[in-house]
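Hi V.,

You were right to ask for the full record rather than a summary. Here it is.
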Amino acid sequence: MRKLIATICLVLLCSGSAFSSGFSIYEASVRANGVLGAFSAYADDASSIFYNPAGLGGLEGINITGGATIIAPRSSFRNLSPLAPIGQETKMEKEEFLVPNFYGSYQITDNLTAGIGVYAPFGLGTKWPEDWVGRGSSIETSIETIFVTPSVGYEFSDTGIGDIRVGAGLRIAAHGKVKLSRAVTSFSPEGTFALDGDLKEPAFGFNAGVQYEPTDKVTFGFTYRSEVTTEFEGDATFDNLSVGFPSSAQGGAKITLPASYVVAVNVEPIEGLRTELDYVWWGWSSYDELAIEFGQPVPALGGSTIVNERNYKDSWQLRFGAEYTQLPVEGLTVRGGITYDENPIRDRYVDPTLPDSDRWLFSGGLSYQVTDYLAVDASYIFIRAKQRKVTDTHEGGIDGVYTTYANLPGLGFTLNL
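Predicted structure:
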């Protein structure tokens, strides 16, 4: 029975952990995707609202950028538990997720620019066959979020030591939704459990950043994103589980999304070539447990509150990207990137709702200047997660080996007026 509640906790927890490895969506701009998000120091279009709001201070006129990335994850599981033959393999069902983004900025004065961004910072989902060995841990999990971030940036030029730009934004979690279904295998015949939850009300945080450009060949960047405390609530339904369970129950939990920061440097070693290295840190160690409060006592659970141990660890990413403009084709820019992404989940807490692992990312991208005002952007990212073997898993997990990869094509535009 504790396994059932552990799964409820996991669903809500995945909603929060999506900022990190696994369900993270750092792909907030098609142009920046080409350099794998190594963009905090350079950030020179309206998507700087996400990567570093200080970049707004260097924008002129009206800047609009938008697009979408398709995320196509693929995972398989090789069983090591006594629930099925050792080595039995199950493939996660194929799904694709469309992740849009849109940003706009307006130059108010020579040095002051304001803007607003709409994007999905975390989400995705997993779906396994209904009869697979891990159906008691998860069959389907999906997560949706939308953030809205009004921002402002200011540039201090002619300082005598180079250009300095500062910026800040209000991060508003405007929409959130979670969904779960799974079998309850501890009963005969098996029962089913489903959960639909929504963000109870908008949640708020902030981001702030600075860019320092001592010369036109070197730029340093720093971005900070605060914690955002969200509150989810939803309806749980129990089918074919009559003893000790109501037919439905309401529940909720407060989830604090962790703070993060980025330290970056961008260098132009030769004319037309920009390179950037970003170090991204996530403060996941603050997630040691998750408390779920039900709206009524559930006799089978012995009360109305369940506390689930998580013990996440801090994680980091190292992102490198390059952009080259001096090509034979006028108006064409090409990009590439490589990233190492450490996940925050300890082996004991890995489960099918979030089959996470340390991973490598590789990217390519291009932009073509169609007119003086309009550019078309395209990108492609390949993610290869390290094969992960987990044993002695907690309640809600299953021992086995996870293998995961993903393809992420993207298409967008940039408009300068």
